[in-house]
Amino acid sequence: MGKVDLVQLAGKIPLWIISIFNFIKKKIIHFRFIKRKRKEFFLIRYIIKELLIYFLVMFLFYFLIFFVNQILVLMLKLLGKNLPFWDVVLLIYYSLPSILSQTAPFATLTGFLMCLGRMNTDNEILILRASGQNPRLIILVPVLALGLLISGFSFFINDYLFPAGMIKYREQYLISISRNPFVEIESNSVKKLRENTIVTGEVSKNGISDVVFFDKDENYNTRIIVAGNSSIDSAEETGVSMHLNMNDPVVAVLDNQNSKKFELIKAKKMTLNIFESAFIDSGYGIDPGEMTTYDLRQQIKKMKADENTVPQDLNRYILEYNRKYSFSFGALFFAFLALPLALIFGKQNGVFAGFIIGVVISVLYWSLIWIFIIFGSRTEMNGFIAMWIPNFVVGIAGFAFYSIMMRQ
């Protein structure tokens, strides 16, 4: 039998047959591609669903912890002050945004760690690898996407709901003080009222046994008011929180220019008005936490243009501006950290290990945040650096553990 010339044989095949063959070949390739993409879509949807379930569970867990803590703080402060029950309910309600703003990042870390740890323990990661999928890539995409989505949700709470809640909380708290001044005035205590200080003796329904009040006069001279039995009345005037009615007061005014010179005034009765502004810890009338990022940005520009601005006051606003971004997008950093930690340490008892690791890191992160908030507010440390250092630490740790995971 002679040899078959394949080139001549191919030339005898009609072009329409070749076209059909190429068409079928393309369809088969396209079908396989679509089938593969559909499998990836179902896998990603499954991973997102599992991540959301664990996130919501841990969101409720952290919310209850912060919520109970807030209730205990209010109860300890308002216990025995005869404050109307509805006032307490409103104070708790207006504090909810601050609780929510703290919850989302920690729920992301712990929830993702528990979910991915469970998948690792149940060998789902191994099954993905055996089926030809890249588990690191196919899990990393939904983890980062969901982390970014949660960060956006957290930023909305921090930038809009948190300031609105703070403003309402302050208004309701001032109303509560005007109804019952003893909310702020306690027995045998020293109370700082912005520039003023009040020292009280025994406080009862009948009044206060002893009062010492420190403030400054119009010339910034130190003024000390001492009185015996005194009483406190609610105020109805706008801007006035309470009236302090003093019996047999003695007023001593010390001259700051001449330490040997002073004035002494005695009276039978004196009424001291304590204004609402005494309970607002802000030299500009509005606390930085009560402002949105837009308002903070405008205030920072105004303060930078003012030569008389105290650097520490300016830094408080810069800290709050960066805190809204850094704390909100901490969820994204936590999501990235959760993946390698779960795959490295979640081979056995992944859910329990993820919970323990998540809680420990959350406590350390929370402590680090507050250390830099306090340090930044008391010094001239750059607000951006102070607020983003905790996230940078989490990000560096994430890359370090991710490189270990890739080597494994």
The structure class reads alpha+beta
> Please, how many domains?
2
Mean pLDDT: 79
- The helicity comes to 55-70%
Strand content: 5-15%
Order of helices and strands: HHHHHHEEEEEEEEEEEHHHHH
- Note the overall shape: elongated
**Count of helical regions:** 11
Rg to the nearest angstrom? 33 Å
Structural description of this entry:
The strands form 3 sheets. This protein has a 6-stranded antiparallel beta sheet, with no helix packed on it. It contains 11 helices and 11 strands. The radius of gyration is 33 Å and the shape is elongated. Helix content is about 65%, strand content about 15%. It folds into 2 domains: about 270 residues, no CATH class; about 80 residues, no CATH class. It starts with 5 loop residues before the first helix and ends with a helix. The protein is an alpha+beta fold. A hairpin with a 2-residue loop joins strand 3 and strand 4.
Question: What keyword list fits this structure?
Answer:
single chain; 408 residues; alpha+beta; 2 domains; 6-stranded antiparallel sheet; 3-stranded antiparallel sheet; 11 strands; elongated
Quick summary:
The chain is an alpha+beta fold and 408 residues long. The protein has helices at 6-12, 15-78, 85-94, 96-121, 124-130, 135-179, 293-305, 311-328, 330-345, 350-378, 383-407; strands at 189-193, 196-200, 203-204, 207-208, 211-216, 222-227, 230-234, 240-247, 250-254, 262-266, 269-275.
